[in-house]
Predict the structure of UDP-N-acetyl-D-mannosaminuronic acid dehydrogenase.
Amino acid sequence: MKITVIGLGYIGLPTAILFAKYGHKVTGVDLSSFMTAQLNAGILHIEEPGLEKELEEVLLLGNFYASTQPVSADAYIIAVPTPNKADQYQSCDTSYIEAAIASILPYVKIGDTIIVESTIAPRTMVDIVQPMVEKNDFTVGKDIFLAHCPERVLPGNIMHELVHNPRIIGGITDACTEKAAAVYGTFVKGEMMKTQAGEAEISKLMENTYRDVNIALANELAKISEHLGINALRVIEMANKHPRVNIHQPGPGVGGHCLAVDPYFVIASAPEQSPLMQTARAVNNSMPDYVVQQVQALMANQEGNQVTLFGLTYKGNIDDIRESPAMEVRDGLLEAGFDIRVFDPHVSEQPLTGEEACEGSSLIIVLSDHDEFRKIPTSYTDRMREAMIFDTKNIVQHVDAKVNYVNYGNLYKAKRTQETAMVQS
Ligand code: SAJ
């Protein structure tokens, strides 16, 4: 089969490469001529385990070519961004989807399948995509087969999950669903859940909203526990021993291009019916400021004004800083007048080593759960002016006994100690 994939980002590129690996002739399309030239030379623009090796292989097989122009194919897969609009409820901006559909329509012929993988607001397929296709004198379900098949992979584990995760296949008609299932059936080993486009849209959005709401509950618990003088992490550990309870982990906030974005698509489509989702968003959005306030309290009695951020990415072991709460914490600390150094071994624009970043600092603030942060060596902490760590991700496992280690479990105690020391001095 010939497949054209529009959008070579975190989802489109691995998807295109997998189709090529399973024998299809794939053209991957993106706007950036620099990026497509790099890809054709085997150079990736994103960090994702296993992807580089697969790219090399499909280039050798001659099954993958990156281009800035779409080409005629049997199936078209749209994997372009759908950001929030700057309106009241941050609704879904479908302009990239519309541009992608417009770019392929000149090549589409009777019998072809068009699949939207990008996350979209409820009713986007029937209200926006279907009319665009039918304007070109095609009947959807008869001439052209249209489906929404949202991806549900976890960055960092994409190559495995694309193949093995259950897949939602939501056609405009049953015939559309069957055609789209046949396309994915060439490599997906997980269950294919056949449904309608509308159900596929909201199902994907609710998966991420579920997580966002649950993380908000954990973050709220962290604040409540700090206020009441209770170890939040211990509470979560014990509560989760209950067979039907799974409290998530508190952190510096919720980032990424999914959890911090998707709930707004649901909220904007039904604002009066979604107070819980709106509150969850507000709680998670409040976390970077909360972290800044805790840092101010922890630093009140420390010597010096320099703090070191460990991690800028929105989560661990990836290089993605989009919508990252760590970036908001950084901005907040800069605004509060702190001198800041950053150590992030996954972000190439951050060249400092751990030793360099810790030199002369009075507090390390762990904001991403990279594996590198599990053990904080003494070669880092020995260089600090005062050795204290505030671990917002509860990731640090080994640290020198001399270091004052704070997380959401003992934050209330650490703040009390700082306050007492201030009063005494
Ligand atoms: N986080 C917490 N506490 C937790 C779990 C996560 O604070 O207990 C934070 C993370 O640090 C991060 C954010 O939440 O800032 C989101 O991270 P994540 O690992 O939950 O999810 P994403 O955004 O990387 O990927 C999600 C996944 N969705 C679900 O797990 C329901 C993934 O399967 C989706 O494919 C992806 O969104 C997407 O593309 O929609």
Q: What stands out?
A: The first strand starts at residue 2 and ends at 6. The chain has two domains: 2-190, 284-424. Residues 197-228 form the longest helix (32 residues). The pocket of SAJ is lined by residues 119, 151-155, 207-208, 211, 215, 248-249, 251, 254-256, 258-259, 314-315 (CB under 6 Å).
